[in-house]
């Protein structure tokens, strides 16, 4: 009987000591260590994108000189004593592609509305007044360098090369019946430009700047039996003040910076 009581006491003591130990092993939850702070990752900026543009300008053109041929006395080549083109307006449109955050290129077409021409000639005896009008279609392939963007403003420089279809109206002296049919022809042209753009929205950009364009010389008017001719201008230098809008269809136009990507942290469990 003594042995039985002794064994029961030992069993109770063992259960009282071992029970909490096993229970602690079974109930204790895992320790969760705090994840390290996430590292912000900024994906590559998507700058490439097609855009369209529309422009309006006021321009002033300078003629580099005019000469013409005479067949009566005195024969040979003669020059206009004066020749001036008045200022005029133009409308333009184009399509382009922004390559990256600094380079873009486009194709543009600008129609120059007719500008009045006033000139004079002198045959040694009398002075004749000559009047006409000149209009042109200027087609250019352009490339630009966007210097950088500060507070939504991006200054740029650029250059273009292409051709111009120049059309001269009839050249005539309003005081006489002498007339010469105007000529129209294609000529080589190039341009240099500088300006700045401003972000109106993430897609619409206001563009303002200056463009210098040069059109090579060519035939200005043809021969007429009532007068002399033909006549040739020596080229046209044009100074333009331009303004317009660009609309970009895709990519980052430089107006907004892409938001950094922050990955979701994953918890780390340890026993």
State the gist of this model:
Keywords: Signal. This protein has 271 residues and is mainly beta.
Topology:
Blueprint: H1 2-27, E1 31-33, E2 49-63, E3 66-70, E4 76-79, E5 82-85, E6 88-98, E7 103-122, E8 127-146, E9 153-168, E10 171-172, E11 179-180, E12 184-199, E13 204-221, E14 231-248, E15 268-270
Antiparallel strand pairs: 1-15, 2-6, 2-14, 3-4, 3-14, 5-7, 6-7, 7-8, 8-9, 9-12, 10-11, 12-13, 13-14
| Spatial ordering of strands, largest sheet | 2-6-7-8-9-12-13-14
CA gyration radius, whole angstroms: 40 Å
CATH topology: Porin
Helix and strand sequence? HEEEEEEEEEEEEEEE
Low-confidence stretches: none
Signal peptide: 1-23
Keywords: Signal
Protein name: Porin family protein
InterPro entries: Beta-barrel_OMP, OMP/PagP_B-barrel
Give structural attributes:
single chain; 271 residues; mainly beta; Porin; 8-stranded antiparallel β-barrel; two-stranded antiparallel sheet; 15 strands; 10% helix
Q: How is this structure best described in words?
A:
The strands form three sheets. The chain has an eight-stranded antiparallel barrel. A two-stranded antiparallel ribbon has the order 1-15. It has a single domain, classed as Porin. It is built from one helix and 15 strands; from the N terminus they run H-E-E-E-E-E-E-E-E-E-E-E-E-E-E-E. The protein is mainly beta. Residues 1-23 form the signal peptide.
């Amino acid at each position: 009987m003594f042995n039985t009581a002794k064994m029961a006491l030992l069993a109770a003591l063992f259960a009282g000591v071992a029970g909490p130990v096993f229970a602690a092993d079974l109930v204790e939850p895992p320790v969760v260590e705090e994840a390290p702070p996430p590292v912000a990752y900024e994906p590559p900026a998507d700058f490439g994108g097609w855009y369209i543009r529309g422009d309006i300008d006021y321009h002033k053109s300078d003629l580099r000189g005019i000469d013409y041929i005479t067949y009566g006395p005195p024969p040979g080549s003669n020059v206009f004593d004066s020749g001036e083109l008045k200022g005029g307006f133009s409308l333009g449109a184009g399509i382009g592609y922004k390559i990256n955050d600094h380079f873009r290129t486009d194709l543009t077409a600008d129609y120059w509305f007719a500008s009045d021409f006033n000139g004079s000639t002198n045959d040694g005896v009398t002075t004749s007044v000559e009047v006409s009008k000149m209009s042109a279609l200027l087609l250019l392939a352009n490339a630009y360098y966007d210097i950088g963007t500060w507070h939504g403003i991006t200054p740029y420089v650029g250059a273009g090369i292409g051709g111009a279809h120049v059309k001269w109206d009839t050249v005539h002296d309003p005081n006489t019946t002498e007339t010469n049919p105007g000529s129209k022809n294609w000529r080589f042209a190039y341009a240099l430009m500088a300006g700045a753009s401003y972000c109106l929205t993430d897609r619409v950009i206001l563009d303002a700047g200056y463009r210098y364009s040069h059109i090579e010389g060519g035939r200005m008017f043809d021969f007429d039996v009532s007068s002399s001719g033909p006549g040739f201008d020596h080229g046209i230098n044009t100074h333009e003040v331009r303004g317009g809008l660009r609309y970009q269809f895709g990519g980052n136009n430089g107006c907004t910076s892409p938001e950094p990507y922050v990955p979701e942290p994953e918890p780390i469990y340890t026993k």
